[in-house]
User: Fold this.
Amino acid sequence: MPRKVLMAVKLMPRSAEEDLELLKKRVEATASEVGELKDIKEEPIAFGLKAIKVLLMVEDEEKIAEKVENLLHNIEGVESVEVESITLI
Assistant:
């Protein structure tokens, strides 16, 4: 049986004016392509800018962090993606 991992990922929008609700919907749709979305929330950064924090459960496979990072980075409105943690569950 394949093992599962839980990934915490932080997405930065292109600007503070980005529609975060629309961006979260895009993230939800894209995340379903690689795993199960466990949580998505906003985190204040500075000067009105907010990051989107995503908790995603995926199959433990080779280069999964790179796959998820690339997939999320291709979402319209996303400036950067940072995998903050990966935990075997």
The chain has one domain: 4-88.
